[in-house]
Amino acid sequence: DRAGSISTLDSLDFARYSDDGNRETDERVAVLEFELRKAKETIQALRANLTQAAENEVPLQERKNYKSSPEIQEPIRPLEKRALNFLVNEFLLKNSYKLTSITFSDENHDQDFELWDDVGLNIPKPPDLLQLYRDFGNHHVTARDVVDVSVGVEDDELEAATPILGSVPVFETAPQSIEQCLIVQKLEDQISVLNSEKWSLMEQIQRLESEIDFLKNENFAVSTVYGVAPHPPLKQVPLSVSEDNGRYLDIKSSENDSKPGTAEETSFSSSAEVDSRTKDDTLNSVPCKETKKLSSSAQSTNAVVHFDKPNRKLSPAFHQALLSFCRMSADSRLGSEVSRIADSEKSVMLMLGRCLPHIVPNVLLAKREELIPLILCTACLHPEPKERDQLLHILFNLIKRPDDEQRQMILTGCVAFARHVGPTRVEAELLPQCWEQINHKYPERRLLVAESCGALAPYLPKEIRSSLVLSMLQQMLMEDKADLVREAVIKSLGIIMGYIDDSDKYQQGFELLLSALGDPSERVVSATHQVFLPAYAAWTTELGNLQFHLIPTLLNKIEKLLREGEHGLDEHKLHMYLSALQSLIPSLFALVLQNAPFTSKAKLQGEVPQIEVTRFPRPISPLQDVAIIIGSREQLAVLLQLYDYQLEHEGTTGWETLLWVVNQLLPQLIEIVGKINVASTACVHEFSRFFWRLCRTFGKIFTNAKVKPQFQEILRLSEENIDSTAGNGVLTKATVPIYATGVLTCYIQ
Length: 749
Description:
Elements: H1 19-55, H2 60-68, H3 78-94, H4 98-107, H5 117-120, H6 129-136, H7 155-159, H8 178-225, E1 248-250, H9 251-257, H10 288-293, H11 316-323, H12 333-338, E2 340-342, H13 345-359, H14 372-381, H15 385-396, H16 404-421, H17 423-436, H18 443-456, H19 462-479, H20 483-499, H21 506-517, H22 522-543, H23 546-564, H24 571-594, H25 626-630, H26 633-650, H27 656-673, H28 681-698, H29 700-715, H30 725-732, H31 735-747
Antiparallel strand pairs: 1-2
């Protein structure tokens, strides 16, 4: 094409600039659209032909052979094979079996697993394998209905009897061959004959029942007084046989069986055995007015519902045909549920267990927490372990990425469930749900796992707390990349430390503490100081390890850092260990008070002295509040009064914990301070804060009597020593600034 800039008169397309030119373009577009539409129709027709061809590859005669001998398995058709291959590959990908999926794709190189159209073109894609498996239970053929022997129905006749509601499996594809249509027609004829027989037999049954009712009502009161259950009716109306032992009312059978003109009344009775719990239940749907009329003694397992009989002489078949015009759908899953009314707690639970998995996916994500009470109650009370497991799985997967409020709601539900069912079921049913999601791709879900480990800790068997749950949390702390998840893990570890009583796990707890303190995230370190460290310190105190292992080990680590860091001190690690020591000061002071000579005299009597607001430094967490560690503010006030009096008047004789602080802890700390170079401003600042906090916690009398003298002893230099090496050593190290800022300014502003 020529460029626009060098267009000549003979090369110009005048049609392009005229009205006729525009019309030509429009016509061309219309033609192309028509051709495209025709091409699409051709493709659709070819798809239909191709699918039909694939479907009919098995010869007709062979199919007849398989149908006449159902025990012979019909070989898989190409279409079925491709569909199953597609679903299997989809399942493998969804569940992270990527290598298996790749191998599977290689073995089926003639199939494109990306497009469903490659399978059947105009066939709709079925649900995934998991959904098909879960839905399988809804399509099984139930057991035969029981018929009274005296009626004389033959076994082979019973096979072809009218299908009771819920016993007909739902088939998605209609029979296509003429032969099948003929068989269906023949069966339908048989059904109608048997139906007419059924109604005539029902009339006889109901006449007998009306006589029984009269006799039963006469001796009913007597039998209940002596605790004897009344005789069941001679013949019960056949109800649908279901998993819950038939304890359902079947609305469809009530409408078919109690035709006006067939009998005076129809009796519905459940086939379940008499149970002590059901004596309090009003079974079956007895209307409110009827219920009020019934005396308390008449509420037994057999309740009778009466319907008025019109004075007409229509045949049962006519009534059946007439009622068929009522538009009801009881042959679907939902129709089956709607047409059955639960008549006991157990059957309500079974119904909820069946319905909830279908309800949950259709509820808006933002409103799904509204389903939590329903899911929990059903999971608590459902008799089937498999169904309970499915419901708890739904609970943990209720919301794709649960926010903070939604997680709180789920956790509240888990705790309520745990309180209700006890430790064994919590271990068997709830913990596996946590374990499954420990490596979930969404951090919100892993967060839910971490939080639930802590929330469920009080309700688990103690050996599980100190083994499985501790291991789960340790794994998440070491492997999880999300700061929020590790923060939640630390808080849960703190709760576990408050419940653990296996002293063998002490060392594992210490290693977890060091990992948590060294975490790169500020959030995690902060949570460690607020929750994990105080909880671990409380357990350490109980084991007697606070002053003999935990504090000495941290001090030794600081000394080691200073020895190794002559040419370059690792200030991050020093801060890590020193901040841990600082967080342990309240626990140490509480231990000193609890092991004091005066503890036995500390009684809450009369006027309790007030603690000054500024007596203690502000704690960073309630778990670091000395009053909470001791038990109450009043108890602490009494102990503080005796503590000050003891130090001022009686000294530290026989007070082993305080003597350890004075004779071992303080000298070691002052020795460490003497090794720090005065130029390491960060270290000087850290130690100043530590000493300030120590002095404020232990009090003014202790600071003046025990801390200051130990510093002054080192700093007492004679004039001739000032220029010597010893003098220079003291003045060039951090002792003076730390003493000045950490100890002297503590009570002198």
